[in-house]
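Researcher: Good morning. I'm working through a list of sequences from a screen, and I'd like to move beyond sequence-only analysis. For each chain I'm collecting a predicted structure so we can compare shapes side by side. This is the next one on the list. No need for commentary yet; just the structure.
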Amino acid sequence: MTHDGRPQDIEEILLGGPLRHTRAEVERLSGVSDDYARRIWQALGFPTPPDDEVAFTDGDADALREIKDLLQDDLIDEEMVLQLARAVGQTMGRLASWLGDVWLQRLGEAATADVAAALAATGELRPAFERLLLHGWRRQLAAAGMRAAATTASASADPAAGVAWLSVGFADVVSFTQLSRRLDGDALAAFVERFESTAAEAVAEHGGRVVKTLGDEVLFVASDPGAAAEIGLRIAERFNADPEVPKVRVGMAYGEVIQRLGDVFGTPVNLAARLTATARAGTVLVDGALAAALPSGGYDVTDLRPRPLQGLGRVRPRLLRRAVTDGRGGARSSG
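Model: Good morning. Structure tokens for this chain:
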């Protein structure tokens, strides 16, 4: 089968089959009501097509049928499915855009102007990408299960309410607005990729979790305060070591947070964000709770003067640095 790059060819390859059903037809085939099917479609991030538009595949009907079967389980209700659909839509939307950018960049590097060849290659590679995606999802699901088990075992947590004690941190690129004006699009994209990958590596190395990235900022969490300290210091150090790139500042706080749909909420999140905003370039600030929870030795914590933080009143930040030995077995500040 040949492809010339027409929209219907692209859809057929990437969706695994042609568009052949209207909304009413796919709802009839799946047995899902019009209102609920519409809500699922919107939760996934798509506008509802007109009633007479052929916009759905056999795969869409199968997916709705799977949802109907899932709803027969007592543990699953319609609201839960909508929440998961929203999470899938947002996560997969970003992943698809990311993969699309990488794929287009690689095609450009290869000087490939043959759309038909590009589509054929996409069709051949799609099964491997799907297997990789499924395996990555399983690994992440296993990790989430282990975190849930640890939260349940904690005497200070309430898993039913999504409450846990965590270290929360923000890493923020200093003067990112000026940087975006100075660099062209390719150079700026390369720096953002470097920043996000560096932060993600540091978080993964110490058993934390990246909650989300916002271009010039990364939000992460870690259950162990010592691990959080290492994450924050590693991120700052890696950018301090290169005078050719902007520095990164980090703010972290420790306390009770609410975990919901992969995100985190609560006073520690707000406090970490405010500490990041007030930190100097290349430094790491922590709150008193995180400073008190750090293991002895290995870190130098310096009390700074109290300062007003929006919505939080006057707060005394602590400057976190790595302690170094003085040659006689003792420790001294690294800065």
